[in-house]
Design goal:
Blueprint: E1 4-9, H1 14-25, E2 31-36, H2 46-56, E3 60-63, H3 77-98, E4 101-107, H4 130-146, E5 150-155, E6 158-159, H5 166-176, E7 180-183, E8 187-188, E9 191-192, H6 193-206, E10 211-215, E11 221-222, H7 223-237, E12 246-249, H8 269-274, H9 282-293
Parallel strand pairs: 1-2, 1-3, 3-4, 4-5, 5-10, 6-9, 7-12
Antiparallel strand pairs: 8-11
Helix pairs in contact: 1-6, 2-3, 3-4, 5-7, 7-9
Amino acid sequence: MNAGHILVTGASGQLGQTLARLWVEAPIPQFQFSALPRAQLDIGKPDLAAAVLNELKPTVIVNAAAYTQVDKAESDSDAAYLINEAGTASLALWAAHNGAQILHISTDFVFDGVKPNPYLPDDQTRPLGVYGASKLAGEKALQAASNGNSAIIRTSWLYSEYGSNFVKTMLRLMAERDALSVVDDQIGSPTSTHSLARLIFAMIQKRDYRGIYHWNDGGSISWFEFAQQIKGQALQAGLLKKTIPITPIATSEYPTPALRPAYSVLDRSRALDEFECPALDWKQQLADVIAELN
């Protein structure tokens, strides 16, 4: 008996690629699986997207499609809202009309960073920039359309062996340069796409999910501390052939178009309590990705 059809949007992104790989390694019995890149399913084009959805008839949609260029969003807000709000809304309306569930990926950037301890799913949101505001608008559009038949997973500092992310950027710069400066006063939690993908599949298997969940790999560190750990592990693995000094700097010394929250650690306890996912350690998750890159 076919239990349903899982459809992943944004399949060319780092989470989409990880989900597709994990499915090959450990598929969920009796489910079909499709992962489509933007070229095949553009959520920013509702009519075309609906035609694809009508053909595939997914019962679960994992929305990993997003506009994620944080700084560019400040001058390109229309594009950010088109994907992050309007695109999410169109998926949610289709799902509501066709009895499908949605697992939607969101971000720590919906918070302003003034809280001194980890953010809970029901804490007050206050994004500082266009990216966070557009993702929050998408959350609200989903909640309004889905009649509770959906879940939002907020995550942070996502990285993998795929695509573009902080880990791969640091490794490249460490190989190219003689020294680096990295911000030390923004605190958050790294998240491997592999642990996030395992959570997503665990939620689909349980089938009982609704509301907002937070997920990361349990750290509470600065970008500087993350860079130091990346360097140490890469040297140990032989992925880097030389060591360079890394200097901690303040955010004020590295101005960017978009403001970032100074503290965006997410409390993952609800997800840990409801789904059978181990409380993985961020250093071990990084080691696994370093091994893949090696």
